[in-house]
Design goal:
Elements: E1 7-13, H1 18-27, E2 34-36, E3 39-44, H2 46-55, E4 59-70, H3 74-82, E5 95-103, H4 110-129, E6 134-135, E7 142-149, E8 152-158, H5 180-190, E9 198-201, H6 207-216, H7 238-258, E10 264-268, H8 271-284, E11 290-294, E12 308-311, H9 319-339, E13 344-349, H10 352-356, E14 364-370, E15 373-381
Helix pairs in contact: 2-7, 3-4, 5-6, 6-8
The structure holds S-adenosylmethionine.
């Protein structure tokens, strides 16, 4: 592939995270070409692809458009895919895998589409080089995505491989952990930047606190991972990638010399959660920036100068659980009102009936999705006279 050429790049994200992804891209200096519910399209070079994989906090995958074409039959699919210089992109001793999304009368089976694309790529490489790469379902080499809708098809190289939200630090999951990209987006929604203290009672496996620390020290999340699909590309400019990583690391080190992040506290009443959160923070290299404590949320130490307090209580699925949680949500309201005066409070929840039990007036209600569950990030301005709402809450 040509390292100076400009390509169309699709960046995918979780449902509802597009505005946060857009914000990150604009901060990095990119203009958005197109956007949709689960991603955006921009233009950029292979160097941009590396930069995006390194810096984006809210994205899933960075995908580069290899070709788009008219496609009316499996045979045409084979011919169009064959007609590309795969021998310049895929190592003949490498490994490829294909995933497809198909919505066309020409075919009713994505496995068959995968097979056609795989055959075309390996046949072409065999013809040009005399040997062929391996293929299969494992995401260990180069990963291609085919989208075939009606009579139009798009073939992308997924340059990330594993989702970027899978940062690799969550070695010890705890109950109902938030996906890392969602936690990052939630923090971006609060405008957290490390300049004010952050409290995260009910921290579970620590995702919000760890993502906050990464934001506070300006650490590129991609530094936490060493494997990316683009590194498997033939003639990948690994020196450039190494120089990008070194720069990102130095930038974060320099930043923390002059900007000490304000304290981050992560607490949970379950000692196993705190054990997991500590271990995960160590793996992410941010444990020195987070204070951990086992305690009921209401006993979380409060700093002198106010900042952000953010909580992600369980939403409950069974009736018995929901009854118990009604009391917990009510106690969160009391904790906010009595102990967090002057702070900005946030609750991330997928149960709006339970949220009413908090009994405080919300200032903002920001919609999110956690997997398929519609959620809200509720924002409360907590001043001395923060008003309790009536029984229905707000
Ligand atoms: C939904 S989980 C939080 C998940 C977290 N955001 C993550 O990404 O791992 C809720 C957490 O609240 C904790 N919790 C429940 N009731 C609590 C209480 N009264 N005081 C402190 N922690 C509590 C649970 O132990 C659990 O770890």
């Amino acid at each position: 592939m040509d390292s100076d050429k400009t390509y169309i790049i699709q960046i995918s994200c979780g449902l509802g995270l597009t505005p946060f992804l857009e914000g990150e891209l604009m901060d990095l200096g990119y203009s958005i070409h197109l956007k949709h519910e689960t991603g955006v399209e921009i233009k950029g070079t292979l160097q941009d692809v590396m930069q995006l994989n390194l810096y984006l906090r809210t994205a899933y995958n960075v995908m580069l458009l290899i070709k788009s074409f008219r496609c009316r039959s499996p045979q045409q699919l084979y011919e169009e895919v064959f007609d590309y210089a795969w021998e310049q992109l895929v190592d003949r001793n490498g490994y490829i895998s294909i995933v497809s999304r198909v919505d066309t009368p020409s075919i009713n089976n994505t496995m068959f589409a995968n097979l056609k694309v795989k055959d075309a790529i390996v046949d072409r490489i065999l013809e040009k080089t005399g040997s062929r790469p391996d293929s299969g379902k494992e995401r260990k080499g180069l990963l291609f995505h085919l989208y075939w809708k009606g009579d139009k098809a798009w073939l992308y190289l997924n340059t990330s491989g594993r989702k970027l939200s899978d940062r690799g630090y969550r070695k010890m999951p705890h109950s109902a952990p938030m996906r890392e990209s969602l936690a990052a987006a939630v923090l971006l929604a609060t405008k957290y930047d490390g300049s004010v203290p952050l409290l995260n009672p009910m921290c579970g496996s620590g995702t919000l606190a760890i993502e906050a620390a990464l934001i506070a020290i300006r650490k590129a999340p991609g530094l936490l991972r060493s494997s990316y699909a683009f590194l498997e590309m033939k003639n990948c400019k690994k020196d450039f990638w190494q120089s990008l990583r070194t720069k990102a690391l130095n930038d974060s080190r320099c930043y923390t010399k002059t900007h000490k992040p304000r304290p981050i506290w992560a607490t949970d009443h379950d000692p196993k959660a705190i054990q997991a959160a500590k271990k995960n923070a160590q793996t992410a290299g941010v444990d020195q920036w987070i204070e951990f404590q086992v305690c009921d949320f209401s006993e979380t130490p409060i700093q002198d100068d106010p900042g952000i307090v953010i909580m992600n209580p369980e939403y409950g699925q069974r009736l018995g659980q929901i009854r118990a949680l009604e009391e917990t949500y009510g106690r969160i309201g009391d904790f906010f009102k009595r102990r967090c005066c002057g702070w900005t409070g946030y609750i991330f929840t997928g149960n709006l009936d339970l949220a009413k039990k908090v009994g405080l007036r919300t200032r903002r209600r920001i919609p999110f999705f956690n997997a398929e569950i519609e959620c809200r990030l509720l924002e409360y301005e907590l001043y001395a006279g923060t008003r309790k709402t009536g029984p229905a809450g707000e």
